[in-house]
């Protein structure tokens, strides 16, 4: 399990097209806010517009936003058709060793967010949803 200040463990997860993404190596070079969510999680859904707003404001040079859905692939695709977001989403299955647990979420509470440095170290963790305007202060 990742500890603050340490490099996060290597994790490979598929994107919505099935293409594997390797964390943290494929994210190197920019800080990344990783948000764990599920289509059935009310607070997750409520914070998505705020995450999307933040991701858009960061552009191609700022902090990257990455969603990891601990959910069924079809449920995620259906949900994202109704609630589109502009940042990428990876897929994982909830469980005792899922990627959120490996990144410091032992109880599996959603939503759960982590901030990873450009060189792959765990900087911050947050259990619960972001409120409007909160992400900038938390991620900077």
From TrEMBL:
GO terms for molecular function: oxidoreductase activity. Residues 2-140 form the Thioredoxin domain. InterPro entries: Redoxin (IPR013740), Thioredoxin-like_sf (IPR036249), Thioredoxin_domain (IPR013766), Thioredoxin_ResA/DsbE_sf (IPR050553). This is TlpA family protein disulfide reductase. The lineage of its organism: Bacteria, Pseudomonadati, Pseudomonadota, Gammaproteobacteria, Lysobacterales.
């Amino acid at each position: 399990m990742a500890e603050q200040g340490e490099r996060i463990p290597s994790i490979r997860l598929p994107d919505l097209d099935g293409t594997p993404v390797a964390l943290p190596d494929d994210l190197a070079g920019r800080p990344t806010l990783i948000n764990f969510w599920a289509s059935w999680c009310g607070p997750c859904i409520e914070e998505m517009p705020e995450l999307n707003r933040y991701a858009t404001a960061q552009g191609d040079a700022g902090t990257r936003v990455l969603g990891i859905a601990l959910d069924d692939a079809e449920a995620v695709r259906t949900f994202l058709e109704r609630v589109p977001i502009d940042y990428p989403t990876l897929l994982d299955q909830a469980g005792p060793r899922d990627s959120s647990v490996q990144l410091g979420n032992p109880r599996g509470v959603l939503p759960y967010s982590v901030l990873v440095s450009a060189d792959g170290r765990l900087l911050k963790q947050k259990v619960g949803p972001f409120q409007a305007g909160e992400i900038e202060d938390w991620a900077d």
